[in-house]
Amino acid sequence: MTQEDLFKNLIAHTKEYGYIFPSSEIYDGLGAVYDYGQLGSELKNNIKKYWWESMVRLNENIVGIDSAIFMHPRIWEASGHVGAFNDPLIDNKDSKKRYRADVLLEDYIAKLEEKINKDVEKGRKKFGEAFDEAQFRATNPNVLRNARKIEECKERMVAALNANDLDALKQLILDCEIVCPISGTKNWTDVRQFNLMFSTQLGSVSGESGTIYLRPETAQGIFVNYLNVQKTGRMKLPFGIAQIGKAFRNEIVARQFIFRMREFEQMEMQFFVQPGQELEWFAKWKETRLKWHLALGMGEENYRYHDHDKLAHYANAATDIEFNFPFGFKELEGIHSRTDFDLGRHQEYSGKKLQYFDPEKGESYVPYVIETSIGVDRTVLAVLSGAYREEKLENGEERVVLKLHPALAPVKLAVLPLVKKDGLPELAREIMAELKLDFNCQYDEKDSIGKRYRRQDAIGTPLCITVDHQSLEDKCVTLRDRDTMQQERIPIAELYKRVDEKVNMRTLLKQLM
Ligand code: GAP
User: Can you tell me which atom of ligand 1 is nearest the CA of 320?
Assistant: First the structure.
């Protein structure tokens, strides 16, 4: 099965089992907006809890806030979003479809990379054991030609984007002979800039220009509260402020399911440090954040850093943590060393001093900032695509299973009476009544036990407890593990401990210490 088919199956699966629904579906949906169903919202909450606790609970010098979505419009002028939070867009005159010019070019580069990988695989097959990949890449004419094309395209794209040269961007699209995937033609309009912020009106206070924006990132809510938190929390540098919340962007190219949405959630942390120490902290946060991802057990090979060659004018280091999504490696999290740009600009635009008095140095200064910024929805997608398996079992049966980390799984255990009579449902209910105080449980007595196991596998429940006739005698139950499908008999009295060991968030957090 191709990755594309697997991705389609995953999307269908998340809808079928109550994880993710297209928004406003009975009205034919709304582009790039999704709703989380009964299981999706549990998964999302568990991811947010993991992030929040790793930041705010494990670090004594990081505190969390919850700032409003609506903010003073001058904030977005100061941050640069009004002037420069743009995407370059281009239309195909035949299909009338609109694209992001840089995304068209990135897709072109991805296709060339795919061609190179195919050539390498051919070489591997041809030369067998004797195959030397590095030498092949350095000498094969096809590979070299495509690598040169990639290099040239990247260089010209970065130069055009940096110089905001929209004509050069269009020329590059023409030179690369990029065609519209729908019409197949090269009949392109000029490239134009498009601001991604949604605006709306705030009341009707006389004298105020009423336009305000839905925040396109949560970070600015942290910057404008920097002094409030520092003073009231008596925070000393280095310290961090974390926040989880909704952000809104009028994305032109909305695709790949919940990867790029118009309404999404971010988990952002701004870490304030002494100027001069920022690169050291940048390196630490780079490492810490990768560790957070790796603890989820989805394989080291599925993550990579992408250090930015092209830095925003205010940044002196930036990297992305990319995840191997079903459509390839793409950004999951950004880590940026943002210098004193944001606080400096808010100081300038608000006219209020946003400085830190350093008792050791006996001087005041604007702190530098390291930002870690990750999308909740992208993490949901990473976790679901890393967990989704279509397995063929030894007995010839097939099962679809979500091998979610137990600490993230929406339902932690299912309690299943073997039959609907003989006092088994009563004992199962008794067990469930105790366990549901600590764990999200499901009770299920319908269909055969095999079918019920499959249903739990499909939603990613790590443990199933089966109550049978013998349970009435020996006060033991069968505990079934989702991944190994192994079953063991254990006393009811031990259930709490066993389930807790398996699903507690402690198992994740401990790996970060
Ligand atoms: N404050 C910095 C900032 O917002 P960003 O790279 O634009 O940086 C950070 O966004 C993260 O937010 C991304 O790595 C991604 O996980 C998530 N994100 C950004 N745009 C998104 C969108 N349209 N849909 C879903 N997630 C998005």
Answer: 14
409 alpha carbon – ligand 1 mean position (Å): 24
231-286 confidence digits (pLDDT tens): 999 999 999 999 999 999 999 876 799 999 999 999 999 999 999 999 999 999 99
How many Cβ atoms from other residues are within 10 Å of residue 427's Cβ?
A: 19
CA of 240 to the centre of ligand 1 (A): 19
State which amino acid sits at residue 233. Answer: G
DSSP one-letter string for 170-191: HHHHHHTT---TTT----B---
Which token pair is 502?
């398996």
- Cβ–ligand 1 distance for 47 under 6 Å, the answer no
From 249, 378, 379, give the residue whose CB has the most ligand 1 atoms within 8 Å, as the site to mutate.
Answer: 378
Cα 77 to Cα 74: distance, rounded to the nearest angstrom: 5
Q: What is the pTM of this model?
A: 0.90
Q: Where are the beta strands (DSSP E) in 235-382?
A: 239-248, 263-273, 303-307, 317-325, 328-337, 356-358, 363-365, 368-375
What is the torsion angle, in degrees rounded to the nearest 10, for the CA atoms of residue 21, residue 24, residue 28 and residue 34? -40
| Amino acid identity at 222 | I
Give the tokens for residue 134.
């590095």
How do residues 460-484 score in pLDDT, each as one tens digit?
Answer: 999 999 999 999 999 999 999 999 9
Could you give the CA distance from residue 244 to residue 60 in angstroms, rounded to a whole number?
Answer: 18
Count CB neighbours of 275 within 10 A.
12
Atom of ligand 1 nearest to the CA of 262: 23
Cβ(13) to ligand 1 under 6 A? no
Cis amide bond preceding 238, omega within 30: yes
Contact 100, 88 (CB under 8 A): yes
C-alpha pair distances (Å), 477 with each of 29, 344, 390, 509: 45, 62, 28, 30
Q: Identify the three-state secondary structure at position 251.
A: coil
* Contact present, 384 and 392 (Cβ < 8 Å): no
